[in-house]
Amino acid sequence: MATTANTTYAFASREIAIYVGIPILFFGVLGGIFNIIVFLSLQTFRQSSCTFFLTIMSFVNIGQLLTNLLTRIMITGFNIDWTETSLFYCKFRNYCLQVCALTSYTCMCLATIDQYMATSFYRRCQQYFNIKKAYILCTIIFITWLLHSIPSLIWFNLTYSIQTGGIGCVITNLNFQKYYTYVYILIFAGILPMIINILFGSMAYWNVRQIPYRTVPLVRRELDKQLTVMVLVQVVCTICFILPYIVVLFLLNTLNLYSQSIDVAELNFSNFITGMMYYLHFAVSRNYFEFLFFFFLIEKMFF
Fold it and tell me: What range defines the domain where residue 204 resides?
């Protein structure tokens, strides 16, 4: 029975990797490139700190898709695992995963906070973020996460893996394993960004609801509305796509996989399914085609 279930899970995972994973990769990278081009080409967006955060997020999301989703597709869909044949790639992939994911989460949080402040009643809050501060913040954030992720280059190694039943790319230091599980996965990639996004996203939404009752220039009013919608859609996607993966990943790192009561194959399959949902977060286009066309018309009319 166990062998039949494992075979079924393997077949389902392979089909999903090929027929779902590849389209997510293709359209995610294409959509990310399109977002970057539009954000950098329209004057309206070049002057906005919020869109600068979203631009940086688009860059690291492309990196996340190319280094991590592509590897998952090759492993599950084509049985080609570069992390088992190359120690360098084992370390490099996990290093990039942390840097890209944490940078993306941080930029999303900053974009949400930026929209809350931009739509605030208080002029001082509205002027707090500017494009110069956005440049400085993103530089500091990127360097911080580059340094923070260095332990992954040291303690991810090729050794026996319970999940695969063979040689795998796993953490070989117990203390770093605890930090990776309880700090990186649970806090930095899970609880903290979700709390920030939900809190400031809700307040930004409330602020936008009050805009019709305030004297605000038409172009600025519409810009704030549409940027806030983009941010809120991204917040919803973050909760729906990332939370299930974080929960399963946390279980994989904390449960005793040697226990007879735990079906490792079923847990791995859940990890794979939620992993595909997770990468949808980095691939989702946030309906930029519709929003950016709207702004393109505004820019041509008023600038």
Answer: 2-302
The CATH number that applies at residue 75 is 1.20.1070.10
Instruction: Report the DSSP beta bridge partners of residue 160.
Output: 167
Q: What is the pLDDT of residues 164-204, one digit of tens each?
A: 667 888 899 999 999 999 999 889 988 898 888 888 888 87
DSSP classification of residue 19: I
- Residues 114/130, Cβ–Cβ less than 8 Å: no
H/E/C letters for each residue in 50-112? HHHHHHHHHHHHHHHHHHHHHHHHHHHHHCCCHHHHCHHHHHHHHHHHHHHHHHHHHHHHHHH
DSSP result, 150-207: HHHHHHEEEEEETTTTEEEEEE--HHHHHHIIIIIIIIIIIIHHHHHHHHHHHHHHHH
Task: Calculate mean pLDDT across residues 147-155.
Answer: 95
* pLDDT at 240 (0 to 100): 79
C-alpha 200/C-alpha 277 separation (Å) is 24
Q: Tens digits of per-residue pLDDT, 203-213?
A: 877 777 766 55
Q: What is the pLDDT of residue 302?
A: 40
Pairing type for strands 166-171 and 156-161 reads antiparallel
Angle between helices 218-254 and 264-283 (to 10 degrees): 160
The total domain count for the chain is 1
CA distance 110 to 117: 10
Reported pTM: 0.83
Angstrom distance (rounded) from CA 270 to CA 262: 13
Cβ neighbours, 10 Å, residue 219: 15
Q: How far apart are CA 141 and CA 164, in angstroms?
A: 34
pLDDT tens digits along 19-68: 989 998 998 888 888 888 877 876 666 677 888 898 899 899 999 999 99
